Amino acid sequence: MMIYSTTRPLLLVTASVDKIVLKKPISVDFDLKIVGSVIWVGRSSIVLQLVVSQSEKEGSDDSDSIALAANFIFVARDSKTGKAAPVNRLSPETELEKLLFEQTEATHNLKKRKRGGELKNLK
Fold first, then answer.
1. How far apart are CA 101 and CA 94, in angstroms?
2. Which of 40, 53, 55, 51 is nearest to 89 (CA)?
3. Burial class (CB in 10 A: 0-12, 13-18, 19+), 80
4. Three-state SS for 111?
5. Do 99 and 108 meet the contact criterion of CB atoms below 8 Å apart?
6. Quick one: which of 73, 64, 72, 66 has its CA closest to 51?
7. CA distance 55 to 46
8. Is pLDDT larger for residue 23 or for residue 121?
9. Structural contact between residues 25 and 51, judged by C-beta atoms closer than 8 angstroms
10. Which end of the chain is more exposed for a tag (fewer CB within 10 A), N or C?
11. How wide is the angle at C-alpha 54 spanned by C-alphas 51 and 57, nearest 5°?
């Protein structure tokens, strides 16, 4: 059976990098492990958290520790019109996923309120 999509492909554009936290020096002598997770989704935006970890001893997986963490905000755009496009919702399941989702949503709402206040001050 052939399935046809009724929506156009989306473009994900990097809107900003919210924060980059360097937690320890990164050594060129040991491998890095990079893990990315979607931690929050709005109507047309996605927050992706990247975590870079590095073993403190050669060949040791047990002692991986976080060296760097960063949050990237992407905005979905319609590939033809370039306008904002809705993205699929996110359903956090674990306690950590729920915590990250709630923290990021609170940060998003705070920034949104600040932007609203700044726009009012410009009028």
1. 11
2. 40
3. exposed
4. helix
5. no
6. 66
7. 29
8. 23
9. no
10. N
11. 160
Q: What are the tokens at 17?
A: 């990098």
Per residue in 26-47, pLDDT (tens digit) is: 988 888 999 999 999 999 999 9
Residue 13 phi/psi, 5-degree rounding, is: -110, 135
The first and second tokens of residue 6, run together, are 């009724």
Specify the residue for token string 């960063």. 70
pLDDT, tens digit, 9 for 90 and up, residues 83-115: 999 999 999 999 999 999 999 999 888 888 888
Distance CA 5, CA 95 (A): 34
> Can you tell me whether residue 100 is helix, strand or coil?
helix
Please provide the size of the chain in residues.
Answer: 123
